[in-house]
Amino acid sequence: MGEDDLREYRAKRDFRKTSEPRGGESRRDGDAPRFVIQHHEASTDHYDLRLEVGGVLKSWAVPKGPSTDPSDKRLAMPTEDHPMDYRDFEGTISAGEYGAGTVLVWDTGTYENRTRHKGAEQSMSDGLERGHVSVWLHGEKLTGGYALTRFRTGKDEAWLLVKERDDRAGGGDPVRDEPDSALTGRDMEQVAEEGDRL
Ligand code: MN
User: Read out DSSP for 20-77?
Assistant: First the structure.
């Protein structure tokens, strides 16, 4: 389940040189699907949004991070699928390795799929294929509906991440005001100094 999807993830990394997980955690059917948003201080600072779908973490790099304001459209560039155990990864990817820089678990939790197409419920995989999903996040920082919509296909495939209009909209700017790890409470500097979770 999802193993083939991790080929690109593994091909990009040398697991003797990075402490990132190789992947292998199995998940039980019926567990609520997980999401994570990792703040990644790489050559370009960004936030990685990852949603559990079919045994892997479907991933997008969001340069500005999520907004709680429905009028903000946040660019989300798709990246390779990541293994489930990546959702707990905090630490520094060494200089010279793929994605070099420090990673902090900015938000984590479960989500509900609320994707609909022509009035009918739609699976996450069908929605992603079609280019639109709607999820309700139950995070430590983010809650409420978020939509991901593809606006460009092909080599430069690109999506938009937008807060939906619900009673959780307009919750301030957590990217600015709540920068610390949702997992360990550490700030970026501490994660950079201490590495993997203690
Ligand atoms: Mn990244």
Answer: S--------TTSPPEEEEEEEESSSEEEEEEEEETTEEEEEEETT---S-TT--EEEE
Chain length of the chain: 198
Is the pTM higher than 0.90? The answer reads yes
The identity of residue 157, as a single letter, is: E
Report how far ligand 1's centroid is from the alpha carbon of 131 (Å).
Answer: 21
Least confident piece of the model among 20-34, 40-54, 65-79: 20-34
Handedness of CA 194, 178, 82, 96 (dihedral sign): negative
User: From ligand 1's centre to the CA of 31, what distance in Å?
Assistant: 26
Distance (angstroms) between ligand 1 centre and the Cα of 22 equals: 16
Cα 141 to ligand 1 centre (Å) = 19
Locate 124 and state its tokens: 């996450």
